[in-house]
Amino acid sequence: NKLNMPHNKTIQNIFLILCSVLLIVTIRNQNKNAVRKTMPRDVDKGNQSGLENTTADNDYNDGLFEATTKDGGFINKDMIDHTLTKNKSRKQILTTTTSDDIINPENNTKLDETEQQIYDEFGFVHKITDFFRYEKKMNEDCTTGRVKRAPNTVIVGIQRCGARMLRSLLGAHPSIAAAAGEPHFFDLNYSEPLTWYLRKMPCSSKEQVTIESTPSYFNLADPARIYAFNPNMKLILAVCDPVKRTLSDFIYNQRLGHIPKSRNFEDMIIGSDGDLKSDINIVQHSNYLYPLIKYKRHFQLNQIYPVDLDSLKIEPWKQLNKIEDYLGVEHVFRQSSFWFNADRNVYCLSPSAFNVANLKSLDVERNGCIKTSKRPSKPIMEDLRQKLEKHFTVYISGFCGILGSHTCRNYKWTPIKRTSVRAPN
Question: Which residue intervals are annotated with compositional bias (Polar residues) in the record (predicted)?
Answer without folding.
Answer: 46-57
